[in-house]
Design goal:
Low-confidence stretches: none
Oligomer: single chain
Structural class: mainly alpha
Radius of gyration: 22 Å
Strand order of the largest sheet: 1-2
Order of helices and strands: HHHHHEEEEHHHHHHHHH
Number of helices: 14
Number of strands: 4
Strand content: under 5%
Length: 341
C-alpha cells in the first residue's frame, strides 16, 4: 500500500513543476525576472539549509561557491560558445574548491567557529582579488574578468550543440525554477538516505557518531562539497538571469544574506530558507525603489524584528502553531477527563 504522505509530497512536486512551466505565460516581464532571480537565490539558500541546518556546519562561504560557479560558467560559455560544458564547470569548479578548502578545515579538526571565520575570510579574499582583475592580463582565454566592472554579455543557456537556440527570460524562469525544485527534491531524498541520517546524527552528537565507527571528518567534507556544488548551480542560474557577474557576489553583505534567509525561514528545514529567500529578495527589490531610507537599515530592522518575535523562523513557528491547535482539538475536555479518569 502506498504511503499517503509520500503520495501527497509527490503530487505537490508535480504540481509545482507544472506551475513553473506554465506561469511565465501569464506573468508580466518584470515579475518573471524577479522570480527567476528568486529561484537562483533559493538554490543558494538550499545549500545553506543543508550544510548548516542538517550537517551542522556553519559556513560563511556559500556565497563564495555561488560566485565561483557564476564566474566559471561565464568564462567557459564565452570561450566555448556553448553552455553544456559551462554549466558542468559552474557546478564542478566550486565543488573542487570545496574539496581543497574542506580538507584543510575538517581534517585539522577545527571548531565550528573557526570554520565560519575561515570560510568568511576566504570569501573576502576572493572579493578583493576579483576586484583587482581589471587589467587585460587577467583573462581566461577570451573572457576578461573585468575587476569590479565584472563580466558583461554572458552567453545564455543554449540547446546542446546549438548556440543559436538559446534561452530567453521565459526559458530561464523555467530552467531556474525546475533546477531549484530538483535540488529541493534531491536533498529531501538525500536526507532520508544513510548519509543524511549520519549527517543529522553528527550535528546532534559528533562524538557518538565517531564512536559508532563513522568518520565525521569525511562526512563533513562530503556535505561541504555537496553544498558547494549546489551553491555553484545557483551561481550559474544567477549569471544567466543577469547576463553579468561582478565581485559583489563575494562581498560581506551578500555573504550574510543566505544566512539571514535561512534564519528567518527556519533553520533545520528546506522549505523555510526558500521562503526566506523569496520574501527578503522581493522586499529588498521593492524597498530599493525608494530613496528616503537606506535599504540596509530597513533590512537590518526587519531581521532584528524577526529574530526577536519569531526566533525559530517562519516554518518551525507555523508548524508549532498548527501542531498546538491539533493537540488542543484532540485533547479531552474536563468532563471527558473526569469520565475516563
Amino acid at each position: 500500500m502506498a504511503n499517503p504522505a509520500f503520495a501527497l509530497q509527490a503530487a505537490a512536486v508535480v504540481i509545482a513543476a507544472i506551475l513553473i512551466v506554465v506561469l511565465p505565460k501569464f506573468l508580466e516581464f518584470d515579475t518573471i525576472l524577479q522570480i527567476s532571480l528568486n529561484f537562483a537565490f533559493a538554490i543558494l539558500a538550499l545549500s545553506v539549509a543543508f550544510v548548516w541546518g542538517y550537517a551542522g556546519i556553519f559556513s560563511f562561504g556559500q556565497a563564495a561557491f555561488f560566485g565561483i560557479g557564476g564566474y566559471a560558467y561565464a568564462a567557459a560559455a564565452i570561450n566555448l560558445g556553448d553552455s553544456t560544458v559551462a554549466i558542468a564547470l559552474g557546478v564542478l569548479a566550486p565543488a573542487a574548491f570545496a574539496v581543497v578548502l574542506g580538507y584543510f578545515v575538517f581534517y585539522a579538526r577545527l571548531s565550528s567557529i573557526y570554520v565560519a571565520v575561515i570560510t568568511l575570510v576566504v570569501t573576502l579574499i576572493l572579493y578583493k582579488f576579483m576586484g583587482q582583475t581589471a587589467k587585460p592580463s587577467y583573462m581566461v582565454g577570451k573572457a576578461m574578468l573585468g575587476g569590479y566592472n565584472g563580466i558583461p554579455a554572458i552567453p545564455p543557456i543554449n540547446m546542446p550543440g546549438r548556440p543559436d537556440l538559446y534561452a530567453g527570460p521565459n526559458e530561464i524562469f523555467v530552467i531556474a525554477g525546475l533546477s531549484a525544485l530538483a535540488v529541493y527534491v534531491a536533498l529531501r531524498l538525500l536526507l532520508r538516505s544513510r548519509l543524511g541520517r549520519i549527517l543529522v546524527g553528527m550535528r546532534e552528537n559528533e562524538l557518538r557518531i565517531e564512536l559508532l565507527g563513522f568518520d565525521a571528518r569525511f562526512n563533513k567534507l562530503v556535505a561541504f562539497v555537496i553544498a558547494a556544488a549546489i551553491a555553484g548551480l545557483g551561481g550559474v542560474m544567477y549569471a544567466n538571469w543577469n547576463a553579468f557577474i561582478d565581485p559583489h557576489v563575494f562581498s560581506l553583505a551578500f555573504s550574510a544574506q543566505p544566512i539571514i534567509w535561512t534564519m528567518i525561514g527556519g533553520l533545520g528545514t528546506l522549505i523555510g530558507p526558500i521562503i526566506g529567500a523569496f520574501v527578503l529578495s522581493t522586499l529588498s527589490l521593492e524597498l530599493g525603489t525608494q530613496q528616503t531610507i537606506d535599504i540596509n537599515l530597513i533590512m537590518g530592522l526587519v531581521f532584528t524584528v524577526f529574530v526577536l518575535l519569531v526566533p525559530q523562523g517562519i516554518v518551525p513557528t507555523v508548524r508549532k502553531f498548527w501542531s498546538d491547535r491539533a493537540d488542543a482539538r484532540t485533547a479531552p475536555t474536563g468532563k471527558e477527563a473526569k469520565r475516563h479518569g
